[in-house]
């Protein structure tokens, strides 16, 4: 349920309302927008008679929210949320370019790629230390050593880093990581989501391979419900009957999500397509569709990459793409644009 307050509402009456709601075990999500002040009510709101609230002097409107996601709901928070990654903002009008290898392979590799993507215009460095691989015989990542190398790359370049967590029990190892990624395969690992909800760090939540947009938002809700509201959603392609691409990149998820939620949305055209030659057109399409950023895999030697070489851009191609993205991002479609 949301309660929209009148402009210049009386503070004392407001505090009375808050106390009355709290006594009913209702948690209040307060959102002060430019136009409206909105109270998002979370909990068992069936115990509340909306007409009682509507009758108050300070109340403009009361509405029940049909969607099962509340805190992630745009109706709870009209304006775009901005997520801060070590001083860099994602969302609102802030666009970030996240780039780096699929996995950290060696000190030389990650340091080299980190420098190259930074020079090319990346603002956040990615790289997997714990890799979710389909086959147990494939390279599983350098794990703790990979995290150590990632931190070294952060130190050398000054770029904030994002890397994937696969197990809630690993959380202590991520202390110096700037943003924690939940991969597609763990989007519904609810215990992991709850753990991340209790951490004071931004989370990059990727859409599951076979999950709906609503399920993605419910996963965000798991994290937010524990207190952490710094979430960036990532469309990375879904499994369909199509086999020409690794996944089917759902670009429409960007405007759909933007209408449903205030959380920032980025797109990963690398996993979304599986082929390096498809990454630039999809990256541009996602930017124009209104994405708040891109996540792109880059490797200095894609042919010998230990993971996802075929979809990795060379640093040279990434540099050209980054330039193009910078040129076109001002033309992105924004929610509410009237044509
Ligand atoms: C990744 O970004 O490294 C990754 C494994 O992606 P996804 O979870 O989207 O498959
Ligand atoms: Mn990958």
Describe this structure in words.
With 339 residues, the chain is of the alpha/beta class. The chain folds into 2 domains: 2-63, Alpha-Beta Plaits (2-Layer Sandwich), CATH 3.30.70; 83-334, Aldolase class I (TIM Barrel, Alpha-Beta Barrel), CATH 3.20.20. Helices cover 31% and strands 18% of the residues. The protein contains 10 helices and 14 strands. It has helices at residues 11-23, 50-54, 107-120, 143-157, 190-197, 213-225, 253-260, 269-273, 279-288, 315-328; strands at 2-5, 27-32, 37-42, 59-63, 83-85, 88-90, 96-100, 124-126, 161-165, 179-182, 203-206, 231-235, 265-267, 293-297. The strands form 3 sheets. An 8-stranded parallel beta sheet has the order 13-12-11-10-9-8-7-14. A 4-stranded antiparallel beta sheet has the order 2-3-1-4. Strands 5-6 form a two-stranded antiparallel sheet. Helix 6 links the parallel strand 11 and strand 12. Helix 3 (107-120) runs parallel beside helix 4 (143-157) and helix 5 (190-197) packs across helix 6. It is elongated and about 70 Å long. The model has no long low-confidence stretch (mean pLDDT 97). The structure holds phosphoenolpyruvate and manganese (II) ion (MN). Phosphoenolpyruvate is lined by residues 102, 128, 132, 164, 183-185, 206, 236, 271. Residues 102, 128, 132, 164, 183-185, 206, 236, 271 line the site of phosphoenolpyruvate.
């Amino acid at each position: 349920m949301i309660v929209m307050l009148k402009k210049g509402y009386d503070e004392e009456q407001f505090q009375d309302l808050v106390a009355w709601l709290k006594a009913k075990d209702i948690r209040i999500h307060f959102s002060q927008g430019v136009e409206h002040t909105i109270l998002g009510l979370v909990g068992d709101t069936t115990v509340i008679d909306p007409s009682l609230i509507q009758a108050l002097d300070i109340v403009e409107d009361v509405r029940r929210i049909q969607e099962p996601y509340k805190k992630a709901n745009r109706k709870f928070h009209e304006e775009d949320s901005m997520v801060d990654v070590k001083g860099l903002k994602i969302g609102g009008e802030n666009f970030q370019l996240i780039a780096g290898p699929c996995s950290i392979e060696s000190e030389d590799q990650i340091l080299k790629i980190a420098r190259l993507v930074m020079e090319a215009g990346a603002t956040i460095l990615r790289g997997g230390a714990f890799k979710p691989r389909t086959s147990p015989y494939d390279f599983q990542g350098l794990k703790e050593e990979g995290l150590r190398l990632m931190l070294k790359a952060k130190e050398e370049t000054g770029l904030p880093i994002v890397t994937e967590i696969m197990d809630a029990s690993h959380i202590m190892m991520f202390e110096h990581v700037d943003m924690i990624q939940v991969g597609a395969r763990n989007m519904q690992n609810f215990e992991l989501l709850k753990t991340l909800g209790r951490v004071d760090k931004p989370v990059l939540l990727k859409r599951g391979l076979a999950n709906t947009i609503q399920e993605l938002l419910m996963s965000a809700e798991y994290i937010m419900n524990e207190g952490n509201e710094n979430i960036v959603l990532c469309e990375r392609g879904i499994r369909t009957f199509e086999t020409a691409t690794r996944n089917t990149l759902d670009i429409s998820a960007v405007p759909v999500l933007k209408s449903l939620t205030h959380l920032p949305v980025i797109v990963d055209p690398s996993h979304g397509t599986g082929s390096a030659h498809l990454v630039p057109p999809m990256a541009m399409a996602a930017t124009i569709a209104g994405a708040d950023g891109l996540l792109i895999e880059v490797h200095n030697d894609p042919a010998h990459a230990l993971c996802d070489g075929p979809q990795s851009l060379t640093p040279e191609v990434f540099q050209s793409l980054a330039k193009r993205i910078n040129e076109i991002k001002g033309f992105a479609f924004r929610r509410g644009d009237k044509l």
